[in-house]
Amino acid sequence: MDGDDLRDSVLIQLDVENLNPAIGKHEKQAKSEFCTTRKCYSYIKKKTFATFVASKRIQTPTVDTLTLWHCCGEAFSDPSSIHKHVSNVHANEIDELSGAALAEMLKQTNADGSVHDDRNDCQSKDAWMPDISHLSEDMLTKGPGEVILYYCYCQIKEPRFICDWQNELCSKLHLTGKVRLATEGINGTVAGTKTATSLYIKAMLAHPIFQVMQMKDFKTSEGGGKCFPELKVGVYKEIVPMGVDPDIISYRLAGTHLEPEEFHKKVQSLLKDVSLNSDTILLDCRNFYESKIGQFKNCLAPDIRKFSYFPDYVDKNLDLFRNKKVLMYCTGGIRCERGSAYLRSKNVCKEVYQLKGGIHKYLEQFPNGFYRGKLFVFDERYAISFNDDIISDCRYCGIPWDQYQLCSTDFCYQLVLSCTSCRQKSLTACCPVCQAKEPTPGGSPSSGQMHKEECECTQSRPRIPKDTL
To answer: Is 330 a catalytic residue?
Structure first.
């Protein structure tokens, strides 16, 4: 069966109307957006895989004869062996066929006239604003607070309009935080009262572009509006800054997603069986200051300062990953989407898996599992705790310590682990160069101008790619 026939075979088996049970007939305008999301792509990919395997099956003359598959000059007598062979050897073909099938399905759907351009619907901000007329100002600004973390890969034709909607939505609900938008999707961390964050989630789930999202896609932790100094919403080239064009390395090429239970079992097997250590790498794709205060046992934690260093790290260590199984994890899962895609694009690994929902979701189910220490977060809390372990030390005296603070020197934005006792001795800088400088009590000057960091910590670091607006 050639590529065109295989793609057509996949399309025949697709039940387009039932791909998303949440989409009714009156909501067909959302189908175009949904079909380009990862959930639809994953569905097609499973169908493509099954069809590819079926195409390798040999017709047997009698029912008593064992089922056989034949591929690449080899014979396979059981499903697991042919599945493993196709996963390892024909992954690129499966991706290409899935992409072609998705494109063909979109073409057919548009040709049927079942989808119309919903740009005008999405530009109408008021239509997707929650009704807060029954709520007082105090209900939105006072009371228990929380921080929500989420992302969604989906096609956004006009991210500027969604950016305006997000700005107005968050302002209306008195939310602070950061939201990144791109044509590839949205990535956000917002904070406020639980009343406000609940309304925000409902508004997100009601919007036609984000209807593929579910409640479980929003990760929550204790906090509030004060966790961020302000609200920042912007449009970028990437929703997570890896520094690689998403049109070249797409999230659609990401590794196999493992639920926290599955990931836990694989890590458990890895820690029990020493022989697996030579075959499997447990990879932390976060920054060094994140993994310093919390990580999975026996992980490989790259010494990188920003995620934009990750591609260079992979390129320089291809032999490390060659013929290995890789288990990847990050805070909430988004960095693994692009990171695993980049690693897979090098065609050196046997298999690449990623923790679905990230460490955050894992710790919700396994607070005393194989992840020990704090979980670093990118707000003024710096870390949240699910267990009592402290795996890092004070940089000055060496006692167990995992509470970050900013370097006390003006213009320096490095994080420092300095215990209470050492801070009382004015040991509050990130390095000897900064420690020798006079600390500025007020932080950066009132001029508001950005100044370059210049200290021992930054002199040897490579240039960081800038986000493209």
So the answer is: yes
Mean pLDDT to the nearest integer, 164-168: 96
Cβ–Cβ contacts within 10 Å for residue 81, how many?
A: 13
Do 336 and 262 lie in one domain? The reply is yes
Q: Are 416 and 395 in contact (CB under 8 A)?
A: yes
Residues 189 and 265 in one domain: no
Task: Quote the DSSP letter at residue 393.
Answer: B
Q: Which residue has the higher pLDDT, 395 or 456?
A: 395
- Provide the 10 A C-beta neighbour count for residue 3: 11
Closest C-alpha to 156, from 204, 101, 109, 104 = 204
The verdict on residue 248 lying in a domain is no
Same domain membership, residue 421 and residue 337: no
CA–CA gap between residue 191 and residue 196 (Å, rounded) = 9
Q: Is residue 330 part of a domain?
A: yes
Total domains present in the chain = 4
pLDDT digit string, tens, across residues 294-344:
999 999 999 998 999 999 999 999 999 999 999 999 999 999 999 999 999
Cβ atoms of residues 287 and 305 within 8 Å: yes
Residue 329 belongs to a domain: yes
Query: Which residue range forms the structural domain that includes residue 34?
Result: 3-117
- Residues 197 and 105 reside in one and the same domain: no
Give the pLDDT of residue 410.
75
Q: Which of 285, 330, 422, 430 is catalytic?
A: 330
CA-based nearest residue to 9, from 109, 100, 82: 100
Nearest to 106 by CA among 115, 93, 96: 115
